[in-house]
Write a structure and sequence with these properties.
It is a multi-pass membrane protein. It is found in: Membrane. InterPro entries: Ion_channel_UNC-93, MFS_trans_sf, UNC-93-like_regulator. This is Major facilitator superfamily domain containing 11. Keywords: Membrane, Transmembrane, Transmembrane helix. Helix content is about 75%, strand content about 0%. The radius of gyration is 21 Å and the shape is globular. It has 2 domains: about 190 residues, MFS general substrate transporter like domains (Growth Hormone, Chain: A, Up-down Bundle); about 210 residues, Growth Hormone, Chain: A. Helix 3 crosses helix 4, helix 4 packs antiparallel against helix 7 and helix 9 packs antiparallel against helix 12. About 55% of the residues are buried. The chain starts with a helix and ends in a 6-residue tail after the last helix. The protein has 14 helices and no strands. It has about 450 residues and is mainly α.
């Protein structure tokens, strides 16, 4: 296999590994609050929103050390061990206890920081200026298939169920744990990409960190510490660059809307008694529609690479428009107290007669808009910081996760219309800042005589 084919295969394997892991984890997050409301045990007092706030809060803080971990043990082992923590979090729901619930939340937050930093590193070292957009799209589309398969399973398993029994819960979470573990072991299939200047190294197999490729046997403990410290310093320097400061508003918005579509909106749909007795199973259908939007966006704007001649700004503008349409329709269709309703749901009506079709259309639009933002952010960060990819993606996830944690925290208290207002304001400001950053990237590309990306 030629070097370019090997790099493309690595991206596909990376995408499939994440697809299996997040088929389990994103499905878990989507149904978590609904499952917790249905617990028969009076000894459990956890909150799905609080758990997610802990995960993303720890995720954010852990991004400060994640580049150092990836630099020391390499991206492949980083992703594997982080995946085991994800699997442990999902397995906790088989026999849940409050202490194990929140302990697992802390551990998965640490694992998430390392996982996504390593993912950005693998994506970058298997791409160049002409393939970063395509590879970002391939990865994103494969990742978002997780929403389709996981939520289809939930719909089939819970169709017609008004209450989720202990047996229902255990069956679902045992299955999700096994699926997550499959994704972990897929990471061992990723091979070391051939350096363009040294084709003779084709036979080398395991992927290592960029900074440890030059020597293995001679690396001392002090050398590893130096690498870890250097990765941390680089992350701090990147955080305060003009380019990252501009992108931080867009990244922060993706954290807010990640919380909304992955946790809050599914809970809202499941709480709408006016949707009928199948409201709980509609959570799964909503997740499928989000996944279809994510896959379509990743395929069209990333993998097919159709919009590169016009830059990234039109794709982000499309994402903003689709999100604004979705927010407006949700405001009209979903009762304002739906995020905070008890297991019995809410009987309140918004401004129009509640429509399942409108609710699922909004799910699709949320997914499509999210893919527009994320594929372009992956692309522009991989282009602007390709020489320091691991620290740059750590900063990306630091900002995104701290905003997601904030959103999960206020989701415990704010009515739906206030949450939508925050999303509208953040989305508008984030898009404007992205446009400025893209113009800077385009200017840099022209000055450096790069090929079009």
């Amino acid at each position: 296999m030629n070097p370019e084919g090997k790099r493309l295969l690595n991206i596909v394997i990376l995408g499939f590994g994440f697809m299996f892991m997040f088929t389990a984890f994103q499905t878990c997050g989507n149904i978590e609050q609904t499952v917790i409301k249905s617990f028969n045990s009076t000894e459990f007092h956890g909150s799905g929103y609080t758990s997610m706030a802990i995960i993303y809060g720890v995720f954010s803080a852990s991004n400060l050390i994640a580049p150092s971990v990836v630099a020391v043990i390499g991206p492949q082992l980083s992703m594997f061990f982080s995946g085991l923590l994800y699997s442990g979090y999902i397995a906790m729901f088989i026999y849940p206890y409050t202490w194990s619930f929140y302990t697992a939340s802390v551990l998965v937050g640490i694992g998430a920081a390392v996982l996504w930093t390593a993912q950005g590193n693998v994506l970058t070292i298997n791409s160049n200026d002409t393939t970063i957009g395509r590879n970002s799209g391939i990865f994103w589309a494969l990742l978002q298939f997780s929403l389709f398969f996981g939520n289809l399973y939930i719909y089939c398993a819970w169709h017609g169920h008004v209450h989720i029994t202990d047996k229902d819960r255990q069956t679902v979470f045992i299955s999700l744990t096994v699926i997550s573990l499959v994704g972990c072991f897929l990471f061992f299939l990723i091979r070391k990409p051939d350096p363009e200047s040294s084709p003779a190294e084709v036979s080398e197999s395991l992927l290592q960190a960029e900074s440890t490729e030059s020597s293995t046997a001679s690396s001392s403990q002090s050398g590893l510490c130096s690498q870890a410290l250097n990765a941390f310093v680089q992350a701090c320097k990147i955080f305060v660059t003009k380019e990252m400061m501009l992108l931080s508003i867009s990244i922060g918005y993706t954290g807010l809307e990640l919380t909304f579509y992955s946790g809050v909106y599914g809970t809202c749909i499941g709480s709408m008694t006016r949707f009928g007795q199948d409201a709980k199973s509609l959570i799964g259908i909503s997740g499928i529609c989000i996944g279809i939007g994510e896959i379509l966006g990743g395929g069209v704007f990333g993998m097919l690479n159709k919009c590169n001649r016009f830059g990234r700004n039109p794709v982000v503008l499309l994402g903003l428009i689709t999100h604004f349409i979705a927010f407006y329709l949700i405001f009209l269709n979903i009762a304002s107290d739906a995020p905070l309703a008890p297991e019995a749901g809410t009987d309140l009506q918004a401004y129009i007669s509640p429509s399942v079709s409108v609710a699922l259309l909004c799910s699709f639009l949320l997914g499509l808009g999210d893919s527009c933002f994320n594929t372009q952010l992956l692309s522009i960060i991989g282009f602007m910081f390709r020489d320091n990819s691991a620290p740059a993606f750590a900063v990306f996830k630091f900002i995104q996760s701290i905003m997601a944690a904030l959103a999960f925290f206020y989701s415990n208290y704010l009515l739906l219309h206030w949450q939508l207002l925050i999303l509208v304001l953040a989305g508008f400001l984030g898009s404007m800042m992205f446009f400025v950053a893209e113009w800077m990237a385009e200017s840099s590309r022209r000055e450096s005589d790069y090929d079009s990306i």
